[in-house]
Amino acid sequence: MSAASVERPHGDRPLTAAANRLMDRLPGFRVEIIGGELLVTPPPDGAHAEVLTDLMVPFLTAGLHGAESKIVQGIGLWLPSDVEDYAIPDLALVDADYRDHVFENNCYDPVSFRLVLEVTSSNFRSDLRNKVKAYAGAKIPVYVILDRRNQRLHVLTDPAGDNYAKHRLYAPGETVTLPASLGADVTLDVGALLRAGRPLQD
Fold first, then answer.
1. Which of 46, 48, 94, 143 is paired with 123 by a 20 to 30 Å CA distance?
2. Which candidate, 169, 152, 186, places its Cα nearest to that of 71?
3. CA–CA separation, 163 vs 196, rounded Å?
């Protein structure tokens, strides 16, 4: 069960208003505010969508979509770095009561998140840099990145300030068992995931 939500200051939200206008004008694009800057990501390619489904399967098989937790795609995560900052991770493992911790603009308190996962696209630098800082600052316990460009999987754990104390890289041919703190054993086949997610063009 999640801790209580943190109060956030109210007032004008010019970047949030701009982000909402962009989402209205660009259906299918993901619009986020990270570090006080708008980040706009084009719709994912088919391989991105396919591997995201493949990534859900081990969490579902482990029983993590049930009474205690939920595995969800594309929900907003409020970030403590700035009053308007929020991210929309590709996949997240959240406490089952996450809906009780909603902030404005359809985003949720980071205390509800056990894990966030990103599958890289054209904005891969953001996933590997800006979002590391953002998710660590939000104290997200586990951050997983499927790096399709460089053909490896990153597992970051133990947030400390604006970084993670532990950062392991895995290559094709390896398997990784994610931390038991998620609530069950989840094992990922790195090679199979990278093959499924391989884009037609880099």
1. 94
2. 186
3. 29
What 3-state DSSP class applies to 76?
strand
Are residues 100 and 128 in contact, defined by beta-carbon separation less than 8 angstroms? no
Q: Which amino acid is at 26?
A: L
Q: Give the 3-state secondary structure of residue 85.
A: coil
Instruction: With a cut of 70, say whether residue 38 has pLDDT above it.
Output: yes
Q: What is the pLDDT of residues 73-126, one digit of tens each?
A: 999 999 998 889 999 999 999 999 999 999 878 899 999 999 999 999 887 888
Give the pLDDT confidence of 64-76 residue by residue, as tens digits: 999 999 999 999 9
Q: In this structure, how many other beta carbons lie within 10 angstroms of the beta carbon of residue 31?
A: 20
Cα–Cα distance for residue pair 30/33, rounded to 1 Å: 10
- Quick check: 52 and 119 in contact, CB under 8 A? yes
- Other Cβ atoms less than 10 A from the Cβ of 28: the count is 9
Q: What is the pTM of this model?
A: 0.91
Q: Residues 37, 43, 49, CA angle at the centre, nearest 5°? A: 120
Which helix (H) or strand (E) segment is 180 a member of? Answer: none
**How would you classify the pairing of strands 107-108 and 76-78?**
parallel
Residue 71, token pair as written in the block: 């595995």
**Listed residue (154, 166, 164) closest to 194, CA to CA:** 154
